[in-house]
């Protein structure tokens, strides 16, 4: 009888965990960080935080006080709100270069069966209070998630979703230009771009809007995922804009869109072009990539001595027509749960806690850009790198007659006598 009770209790606990996973939470908590904070003794939590998040200039990352009107906005519109500060050592010949940066993650606002114009308008209405909160907090640079102005319909392979595409200076850009001008804020907007000048070609594009409301430039996604049946080249191909770094009044920034984070040389190229902050607007689901999410961007920040802002949308988006994913599973109507968890990584290996795994959110960070050069001086990665050797290897690899540099043990294939 006791064994049956124990089994029932265990089954109940497993059901609770499964339900929590299905709704996007971490066993009922917004994030792993929140779970640990509320279940560990303070001294244990501090040590775990040190191990998981690292130290910034020898100290745990500090929280930033948030103004009450901004807190009220987050409560009214139910979005997660967190703010932290990255410091750098004080220098003798340079003043601190502190910039306030923000990341927005959000779910869609209406079912994917609603008229497209209604869906888009509802997303604008949902995102605006979060942008207002960033503006009221004095954010200098703000980045939204990948294709924020539409459902992430690229998993469906249906062409009707192309209707959401718009020119570089289209509706989404104009909407954000007004807010950029109002708040003196640089805004990175990732859209599905329709290139009217080149035969209505589609691109996955990040538009960089200046703090005067002007368009500084664009970057088109360099790497396209082809994982099973999930193939974004149904809609657009690899970008043709290289690895641009945009010099703004607040610093030099770049945009590594979504799947590009899996390619170390992509991160490297933005660093070689002088980026101080690289944003990674994404749309990725738990089963596919969550174990990699806290690692890749943080590693890029360390290896390239710049800050990284990682943004992922939240929620499960259900589509009217089922589709397959080439993984042996039956057809389904959703791509999976977009797990949010947006965060910042710094060149000294420290990083912020993540935003919620299932709620909309705004993450704010003050970062002293002097930290970039200080870490370059400390580790000397640029001086000790062997770029000429890498270039030679890559040049050989690109040739049809390439042979890997493998030295075999001469006894490896010798027959025993």
From TrEMBL:
Q: Which reaction does it catalyse?
A: 3-(carbamoylamino)propanoate + H2O + 2 H(+) = beta-alanine + NH4(+) + CO2; 3-(carbamoylamino)-2-methylpropanoate + H2O + 2 H(+) = (R)-3-amino-2-methylpropanoate + NH4(+) + CO2
Enzyme Commission designation: 3.5.1.6
So which domain of life are we looking at?
A: Eukaryota
Provide any one GO MF term from the record: beta-ureidopropionase activity
What pathway does the annotation place this protein in? Answer: Amino-acid biosynthesis; beta-alanine biosynthesis
Where is the secretion signal located? none
Q: Where in the numbering of this chain does the CN hydrolase domain appear?
A: 99-369
Q: Which Gene3D superfamilies match?
A: Carbon-nitrogen hydrolase
Q: Which UniProt keywords apply?
A: Hydrolase
A GO BP entry is:
beta-alanine biosynthetic process via 3-ureidopropionate
Q: Which Pfam families match?
A: CN_hydrolase
- Family, as annotated: Belongs to the carbon-nitrogen hydrolase superfamily. BUP family.
Name this polypeptide is given: Beta-ureidopropionase
Species of origin reads: Momordica charantia
Q: Which gene encodes it?
A: LOC111008496
